[in-house]
Amino acid sequence: MLTTASRAEQDQEVAGATRRMLVEMMRTADGRRLVMDVLPAAFPWVRYLPAHETRQFAIELAKALGAAAALENTAAIAQLLAEWRHTAEVYADPELHATLTTDSRADHGPVPETAAP
Fold first, then answer.
1. CA dist 16 to 9, 46, 117, Å?
2. Of the candidates 72, 55, 58, the residue with the CA atom closest to the CA atom of residue 23
3. How many other C-beta atoms are found inside a 10 Å radius of the C-beta of residue 69?
4. What is each CA distance from 96 to 91, 99, 110, in whole angstroms?
5. What is the spatial distance between Cα 95 and Cα 14, in angstroms, rounded to a whole number?
6. Angle at which helices 5-25 and 29-42 pack, to 10 degrees?
7. pLDDT, tens digit, 9 for 90 and up, residues 65-113
8. pLDDT score of 5
9. E-only strand ranges, 1-117
10. Angstrom distance (rounded) from CA 111 to CA 117
């Protein structure tokens, strides 16, 4: 995508302002409640997370947004969102969740060797 330098700078400024606003909202009880209320609309997969995990996601997101605003780099936010989305996918699949959270120490035998290419 081609864009002008001034347009990219404007986009960065708007994104930074939005990040800073959300971080500041998370500093107040009313702001945290508001953020928790809007998370399912902004990230529909949050509905699959238990309440304590949703709170943890909100906390981690606010911290990552604050750091990203300071660095002007959103890579860590993208990674955080991907990780939490995958966590929600696990909670959305009861069979997968049970498999991943069961403390199974059963011996399934030796791992077969793979053929050399």
1. 10, 24, 49
2. 58
3. 20
4. 8, 5, 23
5. 42
6. 120
7. 888 777 778 888 899 999 999 999 999 999 999 888 887 777 777 888 8
8. 83
9. none
10. 18
pLDDT on residue 21: 84
C-alpha to C-alpha distance for 25 and 34, rounded to whole angstroms? 8
Instruction: Tell me: pLDDT of 8 over 80.
Output: no
CA end-to-end span of the chain, whole Å?
Answer: 40
- Position of tokens 């791992």? 111
Distance CA 21, CA 38 (A): 14
Q: What is the pLDDT of residues 12-68, one digit of tens each?
A: 787 778 878 888 888 888 988 998 999 999 999 999 999 999 999 998 998 888 887
Residue keyed to tokens 């909100």 = 58
Token pair recorded at residue 98: 């049970």
* Token pair for 19: 């990040």
Contacts (Cβ under 8 Å, ≥6 apart) of 100 = 90
